[in-house]
Amino acid sequence: MTTQITIKDVMSKPVSIAKSSLITEALERMLDEGVDPIIVTHNNQVVGTASRRTIAEKIGSIRSGPIPPTQIHVANVTKEDYTFAYHDQDIDILIPLLQSYKIVVVLDAEHKLIGMVTMGDLLRVMKPDCPLEDVIELAPKITPEDRIVHLHRRMVDDSATRFIVADNSRVLGIVTETDLAQAIMKLKELVEVKHHDNRIRNLIAQDIMSTPVTSVEKGKTVDDVIALMEEKNISTVLVTNDTKPVGLVTRRSLINAL
Questions:
Q1: For the chain, does the N or the C end have fewer beta carbons within 10 angstroms?
Q2: Which of 127-141, 176-190, 210-224, 242-256 is the least confident region?
């Protein structure tokens, strides 16, 4: 007899924050816990999620003006569109949910928050049965001199989530939503308000990129990449061919292949 695997068997401890908290606290929690997004609560009820992307969009927005991140509340970056499941449901329902959302909020029979399932949680027990080539995503390439204000606009307008920083065919780093949020938040905290716009306009990719980039050669397997993500607690791995960038494997591309 085969034991049914339920959501409670794969879920992790929920990482949540009150909507009245500050976005600086939310970003710090996400970085410390290695999660994205974070569950937002009000009066012990789930009201949505806040992500590194929504924080980056908010603090990089012209409408935020001179308001420092230490005065912006989580409620201002919360998305009420989230999905949930119950702890005793079969894990198969997680596949379509995580193909549309970054996390699944887990509730008990009394509708109380007891856990969450991330893409990483599901990939520990379910893996795509396909060659690595099938889960490689093309990522936009930028130069080290590209301005951050332009990258922010592309993230908002084109739904881009990460950029490969390259000098010709040599990969120098990667810029993600996290890099952007951290850089703008730090700048706004340290620089006088009157200098914010000028300093942000002068920020370039080389100033904020993450480096070195974790990579594998294209001959590796899907299992190799998932193990590497688990080991380093990262969501993106660069695939190369003789050190030249081919594309990226992300947790999203892996979940979409299930």
A1: N
A2: 176-190
Entry field: residues in the chain: 258
**What are the residue boundaries of the structural domains of the chain, listed by start?**
7-123, 132-256
What share of the chain in percent tops pLDDT 90?
68
For the chain, what is the mean pLDDT?
Answer: 90
> Is cis: bond before 140, omega within 30 of 0?
no
On whether the CB atoms of residues 97 and 120 are closer than 8 A, the answer is no
Q: Is the pLDDT of residue 1 over 50?
A: no
> What phi and psi, each to the nearest 5 degrees, are found at residue 162?
-160, 150
- CB-based contacts of 195-203 (< 8 A; 24+ apart in sequence): 196/66, 200/60, 200/148, 200/149, 201/147, 201/149, 202/147, 203/147, 203/148, 203/149
Q: What's the CA gap between 136 and 134, in Å, rounded? A: 6
Cβ atoms 161, 140 nearer than 8 A: no
The highest-level CATH class for domain 7-123 is alpha beta
How far apart CA 78 and CA 242 sit, in angstroms, is 42
The per-residue pLDDT for 3 is: 66
User: Which of 177 and 20 is assigned the larger pLDDT?
Assistant: 20
